[in-house]
Amino acid sequence: MTLTEQSTSGARATSGATTVASLAKAWADRAPKQVAMREKDFGIWREYDWGTTWDLIEQAAHGLLALGVEPGDRVAIHAEDRPEWVILDLATVAVRGITVGFYPTNPAAEVEYLLGDCGATVHFAEDEEQYDKVDEIGREKLPNLRHIIFVEPRGMVGKDDERLVFWDNFLEMGREHRAANPTAVADRMAAAEDGDVMTLVYTSGTTGPPKGAMLTNKNSAFCIDKIVNADERVPGKGPNPKDQIVTYLPLCHVAERIFSTWTMVGAGPVLNFAESIETVNENLREVQPTIFFAVPRIWEKLHAVALIKANDASFFKKQMLRLGLGLAARIGKIKVANDGNHTIASRILAAIGWLLVFRALRERIGLRRCRYASSGAAAIAPEVLEFFIGLGVPVFELYGMTENSAIATANFVGRMKLGTVGEPYPGIGFRIDEATGEIQTKHDGVFKGYWNKPDKTAETFTDDGWLMTGDVAEWVDGTHVRIVDRIKHIIITSGGKNISPSEIENSLKTSPYVNEAMVIGEGRKYLTALIGIELETVADWALRKNLPYTTYRDLTEKPEVIELIDQVVQQTNEKFARVENVRKFALLPKELDHEDGELTATQKLKRSSMLEAYGDLVESMY
């Protein structure tokens, strides 16, 4: 079903602008018994059909009205992915409020900044852990915050805070409000306008305090039209109610919101909520999704899992797996050389590989039924994608950012070029600035600006109204786009050479033994790197080598482990020009952590914080 058809249905119901809430109501009117969401509760997958889902959204929307939420008020959500996240998000849009998502890992200091910056009047803190972060801040610092909704009662009994509202009681308030004011939510939906801000998506904050990007109803509708309902992007046909999606990345991230909530209301596939980020592999195996989106870190982990299984198998299985992985590599190279298309030879090899290894391996990693997969939000090494393509998982790299609703480029079926982020979406303004090499976009998905930061908003646009992405790129064959790096990340050595560190870092991370890498060399004579090992795979390697260790740090100090990573570095150096070679490296003594300020909530390196925290380690290499 196209967006136009859905919009018409939603418009008849509410007669307002098309919103993610009106699209959800259209599905409830059209297919009330169709499954919309599933969550695992005490080991059993519980289903929510569209009729039930909309009823809960409407109850929550009336509940927000009962709490006094006015158009433009901010409703913050601090929780893991769960049905209540989606329900409250859509309910907030239904009453013309603004959803503000927080990362579950945001520490108290970041929660204080975010709540203060957005001025939320209602905050959803799912459990005691998230509530304590708000309680620690103190009421006097959050004068706008009137109500705190929680859903997990454990540890919350006896809390002396009149702002607290239990989720079930919140829904009961909504039912009572609906009985007394049956058309109140419909009236708000009917008044919705294209220019209404429907969500604030905060930037990761790699170079300063996070900024709240204002996305409007018009932005989300354009995104659903271009990304969700773009049939040419997905093999066969676009997402539909028969598809299964696993929701596991934080819903406050624009990419997960698009590929989960907006895809659900736009095309009707079933959302399956992973129990936690730690159980993603298990949940993938249970659900076997047909559509899957992942950031590079997840693809790298799945790649590492496949290699670990090959190492840990019995002799016969190990030989079969090695044969299969060799076939996958060969098939991947053939398909990549043919823009993602099969040749007769690769089809024969794929059939053999499927019978011998591929089916079992894809079943184990949870992608046996996957008909479309994508990677985005950060750069990924081509070798990782080539592996999955060879395995038969049709994975396509795409590119976008929060500020343009993730609408920029994508690799389309039959026209894929590995190492690029694809072609610009049809009908959008897209250009690469000739002077700086920066990608710039201009279309209906471009955001309204940064919340309460007009100066930062102005800095983000050119004089003629184009969004400056901050990403340097170049054309490939005049059709596809290759990202070079972030402008701010380009290294200029003391010899005046411009070097993109991300390409080198991503190459290092193709090794199953490397978790994180940061290349250094600004103003220096040569490049060095800080490298974080992948604990699970290096520990497995150490076990097979009968190498005893006690802690993460102890493992990184073993000469054998240093030699192992040195081999990875040398292999990477062979791929690059001499000036781009990493001459020295140091292993990080601990796993990087968001709460320690080394990573953003999206697991991106905070380079300035890393240089400050590990300055001595860096200087020791020079």
What overall form do the CA principal axes indicate? Answer: globular
Number of strands: 26
Structural class: alpha/beta
* Average predicted confidence as pLDDT: 88
Distance from first to last alpha carbon:
60 Å
Number of helices: 22
Low-confidence parts:
1-14
How much helicity do the residues have?
Answer: 40-55%
Strand percentage lies at 15-25%
Number of domains: 3
Rg value: 25 Å
CATH homologous superfamily of the largest domain, by name? Answer: ANL, N-terminal domain
CATH C-level name of the largest domain: Alpha Beta
CATH architecture type of the largest domain = 3-Layer(aba) Sandwich
Task: Fill in the CATH topology of the largest domain.
Answer: Rossmann fold
Major sheet characteristics: 8 strands, mixed
In short:
It is built from 22 helices and 26 strands. By secondary structure, it is of the alpha/beta class.
Would you kindly provide a written description of the structure presented here, covering whatever features stand out?
The protein is of the alpha/beta class and 622 residues long. It folds into 3 domains: 3-192, ANL, N-terminal domain (Rossmann fold), CATH 3.40.50; 230-399, 3-Layer(aba) Sandwich (Rossmann fold); 490-620, GMP Synthetase, Chain A, domain 3 (2-Layer Sandwich). Helices cover 41% and strands 20% of the residues. It contains 22 helices and 26 strands. Strands 7-6-5-3-4-8-9-19 form an 8-stranded mixed sheet, sandwiched between helices. A 5-stranded mixed sheet has the order 12-13-14-15-16. The longest helix has 23 residues, at 315-337. It is globular and about 70 Å long. It starts with a helix and ends with a helix.
